[in-house]
Amino acid sequence: FKGGDTCEYLLSSGRFLGEKVWQPHSCMMHKYKNSEAKNCLIDKHVVFIGDSRIRQLFYSFIKLINPQVKEEGIKHGNIPFEDKSASIKVDFLWYPEVNGSMRQRIKSWTEGSVAKPHIIVVGAATWSIKIHNGSSEALAQYKINITSIAPLLEKLAISSDVYWVLQDPVYEDMLSENRKMITNEKIDAYNEAAVRILNSSSRNSKAKVKVFSVSKLIAQETIMKSADGLHLPESSRDTNAMILMNVYCNKIMKPIDGSCCQPQPPLTLIQKIAFCFFTLSIFGYLIISLIHRNNYRKNKSCADLESGEEKKPAISTPNVSTLEMLLHCFCKLGLIMTYFYLCDRANLFMKENKFYTHSSFFIPIVYILVLGVFYTENTKETKVLNREQTDEWKGWMQLVILIYHISGASTFLPVYMHIRVLVAAYLFQTGYGHFSYFWIKGDFGVYRVCQVLFRLNFLVVVLCIVMDRPYQFYYFVPLVTVWFMVIYATLAVWPQIVQKKANGNCLWHFGLLLKLIFLLTCIYFLSYSQGAFEKIFSFWPLSKCFELNGNVYEWWFRWKLDRYVVFHGMLFAFIYLALQKYQMISEGKGDPLFSNRVSNVLLFISIVSFLTYSIWASSCKNKTECNELHPCVSVVQILAFILIRNIPGYVRSVYSSFFAWFGKISLELFICQYHIWLAADTKGILVLIPGYPMFNVLVSTFIFVCVAHEISQITNDLAQIVVPKDNSTLLKRLLCIAGFFSGLHFFSAMQDQSRH
């Protein structure tokens, strides 16, 4: 850990990921859009002073504001640029040498009431080398001139951002004859002089000229692609301009995926309260543990000195009390949440941008599939979608999704479309599982609902508090929660139709189908009526849960993307349970699901359907168009997979315990990855061990999986305490939870008011 000044790293170090993606050391660089650049630079005046290389940087910079700008105009003269819509002025001033003229121009900004530029970018040297044929006298004069300019630049740096651009290396073999005297040895000497002299007299850290040395590293990799050996190729210039934009704008715009130059966010009121609560829990648990240990020691059997026999203790080891278990859970959770905060809110650990390659996605996929097949065991039961099988399904899907996220594979459309099917499959299981439970058990009690809601939402609520993120940010949990309530409402609302009732009269089956048709109609209406959907979720308190960035559009988009798949899961469960009841399927160990002929036909259709969907997804060219079709066709591959996995008896009778283990903690894995495996709210990658990418992934993954497993256990333990089976006790707990959320809303309102 070298300190928290990521600006220094951004300006001085980094490496290329691939050919064109620049990765600063220790932090993430945001790619600014034109609108973002304008918002950042509104009412600002930016000045570039120097030679033709600085002019190139000037053009790349203004293209971030207006991409339509063409590199026209006087080459050896001043070039003005103005964006009147945002009141932005960017000027290039032609001063190819560090001399008296440049000094006079800089001095004019330090005197009197002259308006100073907000950003000043200066750099020059190659003209001095060229005009004076690389003489040592020219270098000596350069040092004298920089020495005279340095105090002026430091004075400007008190109120403005001042950058000195070091000279990039040249590609000597490509230089024309009149530039042959510009050698890399000479350039290094000039750069060394500039670095030594600048800031040498400044004792005020705020009055420092920022040395823009990263362009040297970029040029070393790309100068051989230069057209003349002197000027950088366009892609390198654009990278330099983007770095400059990040240095100035990140602290203003605070982009999630731009951790460079962003200060650590201050603790909110709610975060401070959470910190106090977890601290008290830790101390409370330690005190109770010490008291219990001392009591146990006092009552422990001691040797009878006379007979040499041991006396039995009068009191046995005390059972763990509810309070102690509660404090124990919150103690562990507090330590885990501290790790979350340090990873993704404090500027302690490094973060890097993702960079996709086919090998970074497909090699880990092959590896985990081999591991999964290696850990194959017999299932306890051979029913379709039995518990071991659904855990296995969740497990391998979650691992694939994790690899997809860390490799940045969302940029590759065929992979994106297949991952969308995996997310849909999770929701399909939600529809299938909850429908099956309510249909078979007929249990619509409050206890069941509270247990499910607690297990789904506990971790997310804690993270919303600790990480200062809205509920909708963890979009999958709100999605699953809402669909659970939809399933519950569909089956619980009068008339309650369950399997026991339907067995007595077949007409109840038609009543249930009518309910499902009504649900499908509602889904169809809301998916094509964005206004109605937004009105429903814009009412308080729903708006507090489902708004992101001030509106519910993101929630509507996420809901719409997989709008039919939960219904498909419910319908599949209904048909499967009906076939099971009428003994139309065989679920014995090793038996095919249907007769051999029917099984073979269905298996062939399933394989063809599975491959057909994959071919269609792989041929997708437009993400928007494919997303429109996805809700209707994703069920094809899901059903195909279920039939392939369950029709052959020998396949249905085994499962992968490796995948099933991960499946049991899949929800925790999905949520925890946001902050302690990935970084910057999934936009980047957490770096615990810099310089060793593979070792870093191994270590961070091990910690991440252990934490997810521990949180799963904490959630299960707390669920037993917070959601008891006794109705009167449960009612009291619900009142306490309502009070907790009321307090949370009160403090949130205070927090919002203080921010505004």
From TrEMBL:
The keyword Manganese does not apply. One of its GO terms (biological process) is carbohydrate metabolic process. Its main location: Golgi. One of its GO terms (molecular function) is N-acetylneuraminate 9-O-acetyltransferase activity. It catalyses: a ganglioside GD3 (d18:1(4E)) + acetyl-CoA = a ganglioside Ac-O-7-GD3(d18:1(4E)) + CoA; CMP-N-acetyl-beta-neuraminate + acetyl-CoA = CMP-N-acetyl-9-O-acetyl-beta-neuraminate + CoA; CMP-N-acetyl-beta-neuraminate + acetyl-CoA = CMP-N-acetyl-7-O-acetyl-beta-neuraminate + CoA. Its EC number is 2.3.1.45. It is found in: Golgi apparatus membrane. The keyword Transferase applies. GO terms for cellular component: Golgi membrane. Keywords: Acyltransferase, Glycoprotein, Golgi apparatus, Membrane, Transferase, Transmembrane, Transmembrane helix. The chain crosses the membrane at residues 273-291, 325-343, 355-375, 395-416, 446-466, 473-495, 507-526, 561-579, 599-617, 659-680, 692-711, 731-750. Pfam families: Cas1_AcylT (PF07779), NXPE4_C (PF24536). Belongs to the PC-esterase family. CASD1 subfamily. This is N-acetylneuraminate (7)9-O-acetyltransferase. The lineage of its organism: Eukaryota, Metazoa, Chordata, Craniata, Vertebrata. The gene is Casd1.
